[in-house]
Design brief:
The chain is an alpha/beta fold and about 350 residues long. The chain folds into 2 domains: about 190 residues, Periplasmic binding protein-like II (D-Maltodextrin-Binding Protein, domain 2, 3-Layer(aba) Sandwich); about 140 residues, Periplasmic binding protein-like II (D-Maltodextrin-Binding Protein, domain 2, 3-Layer(aba) Sandwich), CATH 3.40.190. The chain is about 40% helix and about 20% strand. The protein is built from 13 helices and 12 strands. Helix 3 packs across helix 11 and helix 7 crosses helix 8. The longest helix is centred in the N-terminal third of the chain and has 18 residues. The N terminus is likely disordered.
Length: about 350
């Protein structure tokens, strides 16, 4: 007569073989806990709330369901503010219709942790991520980065003339609508305050403001204007400029150290209705296969061994990561930033 342990071993072996037949990479199957897989199978659903572009979110969900066809996964996408507001509205009503959330705003990640709306999950995949890009207690892990650097129009500025550091942006030659600055990009202010201290960061940005920069909205739109020759320089996300460059536009970029890095953090809901399916999804996003999928979207991937294209988007420079633990009040930071640049 077989023991309970033997039956469990046979069941786990059968599940392993079944997933291999479905084409799931054996390394990924081995990493997944068979008990979690069995429990997720019973749950049968997953709800993911994300700030990632709709077409990319859909692709991620589809690839996840190929691995786990017994889970019906869905997503809801919004901007970081809209996403956070919806979570807070549900929380006040005692509801929680999401299992996993991906959020880019560090102050919102901090609030989710403070209000105990997320739970710690130390995925085995987290060991492949740098210490400064994951919470020490397992509450969040960075999936991709949004680094801020300096884009330039290659027809208007020779590479050897491009500012190589923050101070060179203050050269009088760049005064008068020659530098594009975002009207809401307060993370630059927060990052420089973390690196230099509050006083030095504010003083520096006031000097940038004295250069009479061109104030605009949005990294994508400003990068398009950079490519069109509306201005020669733009403080913007480097991956956005890199994507424009890959489309044949006359733009390129350099890093200004320390590079301010915002990241997309993935988290498990504390009141997740499908916690085991959620754990499998987080494992997937952090896995090599999941990171390669993000890499295919031209995201700045963070897993060791899955470098973005080109690798200099995340390697070879000093950086300051916008940590939720050091998050400042978003409204106060935005107000101060806009005051510095004279934005009403």
């Amino acid at each position: 007569m077989r023991t309970v342990h033997e039956f469990r071993s046979l069941k786990a072996t059968g599940l392993f073989l079944w997933m291999v037949l479905l084409g799931v990479p054996t390394s990924f199957v081995s990493a997944a806990d068979s008990k979690v897989i069995e429990a997720a199978k019973k749950e049968g659903e997953l709800g993911w709330w994300s700030t990632i572009a709709q077409d990319q979110s859909q692709k991620i969900i589809e690839e996840f369901m190929k691995l786990y066809p017994f889970i019906k996964a869905t997503y809801w996408r919004s901007g970081s503010v809209g996403l956070h507001n919806k979570i807070m509205i549900e929380a006040r009503a005692g509801l929680s219709s999401w299992d996993v959330v991906s959020q880019t705003a560090p102050e919102f990640i901090a609030e989710l942790k403070q209000r105990k709306l997320i739970a710690a999950f130390n995925s085995s995949e987290r060991r492949h991520f740098s210490t400064d890009l994951k919470d020490k207690d397992g509450y969040w892990t960075g999936t991709y980065a949004l680094p801020t650097g300096l884009g330039f129009n290659t027809q208007q500025v020779k590479r050897d003339e491009v500012p190589k550091n923050y101070q060179e942006l203050l050269n009088p030659k760049w005064k008068g609508k020659r530098i594009s600055v975002d009207d809401e990009s307060y993370e630059l202010l927060v990052g420089l305050m973390q690196a230099w201290g509050r006083g030095a960061a504010i003083e520096y940005l006031k000097k940038v403001a004295a250069q009479e920069p061109m104030i605009g909205r949005g990294n994508t739109q400003r990068t398009q204007l950079l490519a069109a020759g509306e201005f020669p320089l733009a403080i913007a996300y480097t991956h956005t400029v890199e994507w424009s460059k890959s489309q044949g536009n006359s733009v390129d970029w350099v890093n200004l150290e320390p590079v301010v890095i915002k990241f997309d953090g993935i988290m498990l809901g504390a009141k997740a209705a499908h916690p085991n399916a959620a754990k499998l999804f987080i494992d997937f996003i952090l896995s090599q296969a999941g990171q390669e999928l993000l890499q295919s979207f031209s995201r700045v991937t963070l897993r060791e061994g899955v470098e973005p294209n080109p690798p200099r988007l995340i390697k070879g420079f000093k950086r300051v990561v916008l940590h939720p633990e050091k998050a400042q009040d978003a409204q106060e930071s935005l107000k101060l930033y806009r005051e510095i640049f004279g934005v009403p």
